[in-house]
Design brief:
The chain folds into two domains: 51 residues, no CATH class; 38 residues, no CATH class. Helix content is 37%, strand content 19%. Strands 2-1-3 form a three-stranded antiparallel sheet, with no helix packed on it. Strand 1 and strand 2 form a beta hairpin.
């Protein structure tokens, strides 16, 4: 999946943020707030996707609280990678 930015006029900006490897969520941050999504994804090969609404995600976490820990681990790893990238610059 290529991850690209959404332009201010609602179209797609051709700049590529990155490539999401198999199994990695795309734009999962949108599940946690009331902000619109920050990016779009374009499949570059045959792909099977799972779309998850914020409400469905909340219900899943409430039904399985251990899932919260896994979400925190993933977000922590993402913050750590971002922090490391910022230190290199």
């Amino acid at each position: 999946m290529r991850v690209i930015t959404d332009s201010e006029d609602g179209g797609l900006d051709p700049s590529v943020w990155g490539v999401a490897p198999r199994g990695r969520p795309v734009d999962d941050i949108a599940l946690f707030g009331d902000q619109p999504r920050a990016a779009s994804a374009i499949a570059v090969e045959p792909t099977v996707l799972l779309a998850l609404s914020p409400e469905h995600f909340r219900r899943m976490v409430l039904e399985d609280p251990a899932m919260s820990f896994e979400v925190f681990r993933a977000l922590s790893a993402r913050i750590r990678r971002f922090d490391e990238a910022m230190q290199v610059q």
